[in-house]
Design a protein that fits this description.
Number of helices: 9
Enzyme class: transferase
CATH topology of one domain: Heat Shock Protein 90
Protein name: histidine kinase
Shape: rod-shaped
CATH superfamily of one domain: Histidine kinase-like ATPase, C-terminal domain
Strand content: 15-25%
Order of helices and strands: HEHEEEEEEEHEEEEEHHEHHEEHEEHEE
Largest sheet: 5 strands, antiparallel
Distance between the termini: 62 Å
Number of strands: 20
EC number: 2.7.13.3
InterPro entries: HATPase_C_sf (IPR036890), HATPase_dom (IPR003594), His_kinase_dom (IPR005467), HisK_dim/P_dom (IPR003661), HisK_dim/P_sf (IPR036097), Sensor_HK_Regulatory (IPR050736), Sig_transdc_His_kin-like_C (IPR004358)
Structural class: alpha+beta
Catalytic activity: ATP + protein L-histidine = ADP + protein N-phospho-L-histidine
Radius of gyration: 57 Å
């Protein structure tokens, strides 16, 4: 029995724990799904990068003019036959001289190229620098699609070709113009990319602006200043918490149903045990007194009659137990056929039937009633209520107690009271004793047998009769009151 109750408690706790865990998961999931982290532009930050772009563009233009001036001066020196080794220009990889009268280019300085520059009329390979004949006149920049770049200066008969290194040039320009990366006071950031330089893994910029120059296209990448704001999608957030609430309610209902099922199972087991005990006691007494009566009759004794009286009492007790069990098993709510009847005589028989059993326990019984008491009711149901109330008084009032049964008509209602001056019902259990399988506990009731169905059945029968059974306060002991509406007296 205890093991089953413990298993029931564990099952209920597991159901509650599982439903709570699932509800928490749903609530957290809804919160996380609904949560959005937004990047909102800072108010008043429009065009914050213009100052940096203007500064970089001016620096690039200044360096472009100085660089072209330096390249042109060195090229003129080579054309004049000078050797300006002490006047090297940053970013120059190799220097060649092209002559209209010579097929092969003349190396002058820097690296020796595997594909040296050639005039158009001498071009033999697609990999080489190929310059048109007009390159021998004037000066300017020459580009090829694969990133090669050169500065050419010609005097009509010959030209100096200065092959440039874009990467070296970019380093010089970046250093001199301070084209790197930085942040603004508003929180935005920027980064300059050199020609042919790939973007960093930082991610896509909000804006990209290009500055064209002789060095190539420099790009300013811009990340606007933003504020990070947390917003929630209310439908998802509310949906998550509603789902969690539904799961909690469902889990609570399921746990309540489980607890009720385990409680009913425990009550049924307890009921079976109590009924078995209740039936065993009168049966044992019947068998014992029957054996004693047989022995006494064989000896010609005179104690046979008292033995038979005890046997009758036990049979009546057994009948009451069986009747209560049958009433409870059939259900406690039925529609009864009421008929007008005078209850004085049938209730008197019931009360007198308890006089001798109470006297054997040194308990007195008084019966107060009017001459007649007409009421539309079921006399068998009222009798069953009185039997249960007197049976409780017999069990729990104790030896030497006085039991009083009073029948009266009060304000158009029948009032029946069964009272005793025993120990009474313990405080706080006045309503609980009307529940099935419940017996009020006190030290005087230890060892007293019973199914715990008498008061529950009696209250149910009172409701079926249109009345009510209640416990009323008493100076001493217990007092139960049954009230039923009286029948109207028929004319004639």
């Amino acid at each position: 029995m205890m093991g089953a109750m413990m298993s029931g408690r564990l099952a209920v706790a597991a159901t509650l724990g599982l439903s709570c865990a699932l509800a928490v998961v749903l609530a957290v999931t809804g919160w996380r799904i609904s949560r959005q982290q937004l990047r909102v532009p800072v108010a008043g930050s429009e065009g914050w990068w213009e100052e940096e772009f203007g500064r970089g563009a001016r620096q690039v233009a200044r360096l472009e003019a100085l660089w072209e001036e330096a390249l042109d001066a060195r090229a003129q020196a080579f054309l004049a036959g000078e050797d300006p080794r002490d006047g090297s220009v940053a970013g120059v990889r190799s220097v060649y001289r092209l002559d209209s009268s010579k097929k092969e280019p003349q190396w002058l300085a820097g690296e020796t190229l595997t594909s040296p520059p050639l005039l158009g009329k001498y071009a033999e390979t697609e990999d080489a620098w190929v310059f048109p004949d007009q390159a021998l006149v004037g000066s300017g920049w020459m580009d090829e699609g694969d990133g090669r770049r050169a500065y050419v200066r010609g005097n009509g008969a010959a030209a100096v070709v200065m092959v440039l290194d874009p990467e070296r040039t970019a380093k010089v320009v970046r250093r001199e113009a301070r084209l790197g990366r930085g942040e603004s006071e508003l929180g935005g950031s920027w980064q300059w990319l050199a020609p042919q330089e790939s973007a960093t893994p930082r991610g896509d910029a909000d804006e990209s602006i290009r500055q064209l120059s002789s060095f190539g296209a420099w790009t300013l990448r811009i990340w606007n200043p933003v504020e990070r704001q947390i917003r929630y999608q209310l439908p998802l957030l509310i949906g998550g918490f509603v789902a969690a609430g539904v799961v909690m309610l469902a889990g609570g209902w399921l746990a309540w149903a489980q607890a009720g099922a385990w409680k009913r199972a425990a009550e049924q087991v307890s009921f079976a045990n109590q009924v078995s005990h209740e039936l065993r006691t009168p049966l044992t007494n019947l068998m014992l007194n029957a054996d004693l009566a047989i022995d006494d009759a064989a000896r010609g004794g005179r104690s046979v009659s008292p033995r038979l009286g005890v046997m009758r009492e036990e049979m009546e007790r057994l009948s009451r137990i069986v009747e209560n069990v049958l009433i409870f098993s059939r259900g406690r709510h039925r529609t009864r056929q009421l008929r007008e009847v005078d209850l004085v005589a049938p209730l008197g028989e019931v009360v007198e039937g308890f006089r001798f059993p109470l006297a054997r326990k040194d308990m007195s019984l008084s019966w107060e009633r009017p001459d007649t008491c007409h009421v539309a009711t079921d006399p068998e149901a009222v009798g069953r209520i009185v039997v249960n109330l007197l049976s409780n008084a017999e069990k729990y009032a104790g030896a030497g107690s006085a039991v009083r049964v009073r029948l009266a008509q009060v304000q158009g209602r029948l009032r029946l009271e069964v009272a005793d001056d025993g120990p009474g019902i313990p405080a706080g259990q006045e309503r609980r004793v009307f529940r099935p399988f419940v017996r009020g506990g006190s030290s005087t009731r230890e060892g007293v047998s019973g199914t715990g169905l008498g008061l529950a059945i009696s209250r149910s029968l009172a409701g079926e009769l249109g009345g009510r059974l209640m416990m009323v306060s008493a100076a001493r002991g217990a007092c139960f009151r049954l009230e039923i509406p009286l029948a109207e007296r028929r004319a004639g």
